[in-house]
Write a structure and sequence with these properties.
This protein is an alpha/beta fold and 216 residues long. The strands form 2 sheets. A 3-stranded parallel sheet has the order 3-4-5, with helices on both faces. Strands 1-2 form a two-stranded antiparallel sheet. α1 packs antiparallel against α5, α5 crosses α7 and α6 packs antiparallel against α7.
Length: 216
């Protein structure tokens, strides 16, 4: 859940966008889970300070849906945002399509079969080529489509107290660990990681650890 914050202005409107890295595999090991704790903490603190989340933009290349894509959808829509934030899908790499929107009509049923639902979508290209009028047309069309998505799909911001939010996310992320794993994280493991890696005060770390393990 490593993220980079971007402040941008488009047509006199300001946006704060977090470019967040998802999972590379449908599951993660314990070490990967512990690494994710620090990144989740940083992300949640920044989101909370910025006023919460208005819209999730789930970006993926136009191609087949995999178990990893499905896990990333759950990670952000369900685990991070408690299913309370609208999510829009952005499919990139579609410059070879005669009409980019055709890709959606061919693939939407397969996407929905994986339980991936959205309030809107955009089929786009990020490739610019001034020497190719058709490609430039697709690029400008993509820009317009993305701006429309931003302006029409954003909802009421979702936020909560940072420590409670973190505990909710980490509790749910346990489901990404393999079922046959020999040792699941214990309360003392959470406390140690939160103090050492996240710089939490011991009392705060203990509170979060107790929230995580309280109903598992």
């Amino acid at each position: 859940m490593a993220s980079t914050k971007h402040e941008i202005t488009v047509d006199s409107r300001s946006y704060t966008i977090y470019d967040t890295v998802g999972l590379e595999e449908p599951q993660m090991g314990v070490n990967g889970y512990f690494d994710a704790i620090e990144k989740a903490y940083d992300l949640i603190r920044s989101l909370s300070a910025s006023g919460g989340i208005h819209l999730l933009l789930f970006c993926l290349r136009g191609g087949r849906i995999t178990a990893t894509v499905q896990s990333n959808y759950r990670l952000f829509h369900e685990f991070l945002c408690d299913k309370r934030v609208p999510i829009a899908l952005i499919f990139t790499g579609l410059e070879r399509e005669t009409k980019m929107e055709n890709w959606w009509f061919r693939n939407k049923h397969n996407i929905e079969k994986y339980g991936i639902h959205s309030v809107g979508h955009a089929c786009i290209t990020a490739v610019q080529d001034p020497d190719d009028p058709e490609q430039e047309k697709k690029y400008k069309e993509s820009r317009t489509t993305l701006l429309t998505l931003l302006n029409t799909c954003a909802g009421t911001p979702m936020t909560m107290e940072a420590q409670t939010w973190l505990a909710m996310v980490l509790k749910r992320m346990v489901f990404l660990l393999p079922r046959k794993i020999k040792r699941h994280p214990k309360e003392k493991d959470y406390t140690r990681i939160l103090i050492k890696r996240c710089g939490m005060e011991p009392d705060a770390a203990q509170r979060v650890a107790s929230l995580i393990k309280g109903s598992t």
